[in-house]
Write a structure and sequence with these properties.
The chain contains 15 helices and 7 strands. The strands form 2 sheets. Strands 2-3-4-1-5 form a 5-stranded parallel beta sheet, sandwiched between helices. Strands 6-7 form a two-stranded antiparallel sheet. The relative contact order is 0.12. Helix 1 runs parallel beside helix 2, helix 3 runs parallel beside helix 4 and helix 10 crosses helix 11. The two termini are 36 Å apart. It is globular, with a radius of gyration of 23 Å. Strand 3, helix 5 and strand 4 form a beta-alpha-beta unit. The structure holds adenosine-5'-diphosphate and magnesium ion.
Length: 355
């Protein structure tokens, strides 16, 4: 073997395509979520015979295929009929009734939205959707700030299935009783993937993403283990991409165990930085907690206000809870004088368990 055979040339890449390692990539085939997709389909089924559909609440931890399985069902509906609108909204990004109304208008191609208030927009939306039926998915639904949206969707749209997706098991109980009784959703809980499923899903991505045989099987096995420990496919995708990039930076023709281990060393960054799902306020608060690690909630709120944060304390508190939920921070109770204070820590204690 020549001295430079293992060295990657300038114009060479280990990647065929990095897109399949993106979290938003939709793989052509979903492994191991057939039953869940069938369940979602069953809720939508009545719409095909012009009856009202069932509403559905999907719950389960992050990174286990809730979004991708739901999107697959939407695309099946779309392929099968023109009589059902399929609308998908991520509520991290669209968290108010007005933003959601604008997004729906955009998706159904209704352009006359300038200077129109939310009620007005929903009248237009109902006029259009009620000519057909609609499946409306509200992903990350716990991020919605105003329950009014449910009245619009449940009362103004005649034939529809609402699919609501959340990581937060408590979410339904936080809703106003009237909204809950109008929703009465079926429940579908996604369970984390087992080791074999995790491996199969990542293996498919490897085939799409890397040139043949560049990933050492031992490195792959290690990455699968970490993704399985994290119970989050996204961690596996992150590690595959990082390991590939580390190998390329070192001009190596193979991705070795060593590259995988270096990538694993960065997994903590992934957990903390996978902020595509954070809204601007949450991002700002997270950044403050990073700099002021170990302050109490009240103290961080003071800093937040000084920096121009304009949320009420109760909203601020909600954001803290959702950062905790997303494992971006951890909360610690501390005795303080006669009462208790909550100390905020950047990152999650149990993170070390899998980094
Ligand atoms: N069964 C599966 N087959 C192929 N890819 C999957 C499967 N389940 C999850 N994924 C991938 O894992 C990542 C996380 O899935 P996602 O649906 O975003 O999780 P969730 O919505 O539960 O947080 C996505 O990139 C997704 O494509
Ligand atoms: Mg999701």
């Amino acid at each position: 073997m020549g001295l430079f055979d293992s060295v990657l040339k300038d114009n060479e890449s280990l990647f065929l395509d990095t897109l399949p390692l993106d979290i938003d990539f939709i793989p052509p085939i979903l492994e191991g979520r057939e039953n869940e997709q069938q369940y979602i389909a069953t809720c939508i089924q009545p719409l095909f015979s012009k009856r009202n559909g069932k509403n559905l609440l999907i719950m389960g931890a992050p990174g286990i295929g809730k979004t991708v399985a739901t999107k697959h069902v939407l695309s099946e509906v779309h392929k099968k009929t023109d009589d059902i609108y399929t609308i998908y909204i991520n509520c991290w990004k669209k968290d108010t009734p007005h933003k959601i109304a604008l997004e729906i208008c955009d998706q159904i191609d209704f352009k006359f939205v300038q200077n129109r208030d939310t009620n007005d927009l929903f009248k237009e939306i109902a006029r259009i959707l009620n000519k057909k039926s609609a499946v409306i998915v509200l992903d990350e639904v716990d991020k919605i700030t105003d329950e009014q949206i449910f009245y619009h969707l449940l009362e103004e749209i005649n034939r529809r299935t609402l699919v609501l997706i959340t990581n937060n098991e408590q979410w339904l109980t936080t809703l106003d009783a009237r909204v809950r009784s109008r929703l009465t959703p079926d429940l579908l809980v996604f369970k984390p993937y087992n080791f074999e499923e995790t491996k199969m899903i990542l293996k498919k991505r490897v085939e799409f993403a890397f040139a043949p045989n560049v990933l050492d099987p031992v490195a792959f096995e290690k990455i699968v283990e970490k993704a399985y420990d994290a119970k989050d496919i996204r961690a596996g995708l992150y590690l595959l991409k990082e390991a590939g990039e580390i190998a390329e930076q070192n001009a190596q023709r193979k991705i070795s165990l060593n590259h995988a281990e270096k990538a694993i060393g960065k997994l903590r960054d992934f957990k903390l930085k996978s902020t595509t799902t954070l809204d601007t306020q949450e991002q700002m608060i997270l950044d403050l907690i990073k700099v002021h690690n170990g302050l109490t909630t009240k103290e961080v709120y003071e800093v937040y206000q000084k920096k121009g944060g304009d949320q009420s304390y109760s909203n601020f508190h909600k954001k803290i809870k959702s950062l905790e939920q997303g494992k971006f921070i951890s909360l610690e109770e501390r005795n303080e004088g006669p009462g208790k204070a909550t100390v905020l820590r950047y990152g999650m204690k149990t993170l070390q368990d899998f980094t």
